[in-house]
Amino acid sequence: MTLRRSRTLLSPEQRADPAAARGSAVALLARRDFATRELLGRLAAKGFDADTAAAVITELVAEGVLNEARYAQNFATWHAARGQGPLRIAAQLKQQGVAPDLIEGALAGPHDWAALASKVRRGRFGPQPPRGWPEQARQARFLQYRGFSMEQIRAATGATIDAD
C-alpha cells in the first residue's frame, strides 16, 4: 500500500502570499540545497504564483540562504562520491540551470578524477587490468557512461594510443 501526501489546493490569497512562499522555500532548503530553477519549480508545483516565487527566491539569494555555488559544489562532491565523473556531473548541473562558471568551479575542486575513474573501474571489474581489446572496450564504455573523459578512461584502463 502506497501512502501519498494529499495536495491541498492553495487559495488565491495564499498563492500570492510571499510569507507562505518563503516558508515553503525555507522548509525545502532545510532538507537540502536546491538550484534556483529547481526551487522555483518546486514552489510552482506547490501552487504559488510564478511572480511571488521569483520574488522570494531573489530575496533568499540576496540573504545568502540560497547559493548556487554552494549547491554546485555539494552536488559535485556527492555525485563524485557515488562514482560519477565530471562530464556526467556537468551535464546534470547544466540541466538544472546552474551557470557554466559555477559548474567549472565545482568540478575544479578537490577531486582527482583519474584516481576516481580507476577506483570505479576496480570496484566494478576487479583489480586486474583488462585483457585484450574487447574487455578494454567494455570497461571504457562503462566509464564513459559514468561520465569520465577519454583521458581519464585511458589512465584507468591502462590503454595505450597506437600511432599508426
Describe the structure.
The chain is mainly α. The chain folds into three domains: 12-63, Arc Repressor Mutant, subunit A, CATH 1.10.10; 68-107, Orthogonal Bundle (Arc Repressor Mutant, subunit A); 113-157, Arc Repressor Mutant, subunit A (Orthogonal Bundle), CATH 1.10.10. The protein has helices at 12-15, 18-31, 36-46, 50-63, 68-81, 86-95, 100-107, 113-125, 132-146, 150-157. Helix 3 crosses helix 4, helix 6 (86-95) packs antiparallel against helix 7 (100-107) and helix 9 packs across helix 10. The longest helix is centred in the C-terminal third of the chain and has 15 residues, at 132-146. The protein is elongated. The termini are far apart. 26% of the residues are buried.
What does the secondary structure layout of this molecule look like, with pairings?
Layout: H1 12-15, H2 18-31, H3 36-46, H4 50-63, H5 68-81, H6 86-95, H7 100-107, H8 113-125, H9 132-146, H10 150-157
Helix pairs in contact: 2-4, 3-4, 5-6, 5-7, 6-7, 8-10, 9-10
